[in-house]
Design a protein that fits this description.
Layout: E1 7-10, E2 16-25, E3 30-38, H1 47-58, E4 65-73, E5 78-86, H2 89-95, H3 98-102
Antiparallel strand pairs: 1-2, 2-3, 3-5, 4-5
Length: about 100
């Protein structure tokens, strides 16, 4: 595990996902997660793979994980990820925009 990483997971393509910051938002009922994915000589990881890895790391259903963005840093094989992990589906539907839910979070 890299220094500063709170949790790590390996994606199906061999990329390394590291949670670098998490913030519990008790009012909204979610954990706000900031990650870095190292994917040297591979493409940007899919939302589906990142979502599955975060769900497993936090012991939640994939339906409760919303990927806000995956931003690739040009030329260095690294992407920044921002995600929300909710406690229940009702809270997720109340706070997340419709376009993210249609995108498959």
């Amino acid at each position: 595990m890299s220094e500063g990483a709170l949790k790590t997971a390996t994606l199906p393509d061999g990329s390394l996902l590291q949670v670098i910051r998490e913030k519990e938002n008790k009012v909204v009922g979610r954990v706000e997660v900031y990650c870095v994915v190292t994917h040297v000589e591979k493409g940007t990881p899919s939302r589906k793979d990142v979502r599955a890895a975060l769900a497993k790391l936090y012991g939640k259903s994939e339906d409760l994980v919303v990927i806000k963005y995956i931003k690739s840093e040009y030329g260095i094989g690294r992407s920044k990820v921002r995600a929300n992990i909710y406690n229940d589906l009702e809270r997720l539907k109340a706070f997340e925009p419709e376009y993210l839910l249609k995108r498959g979070a």
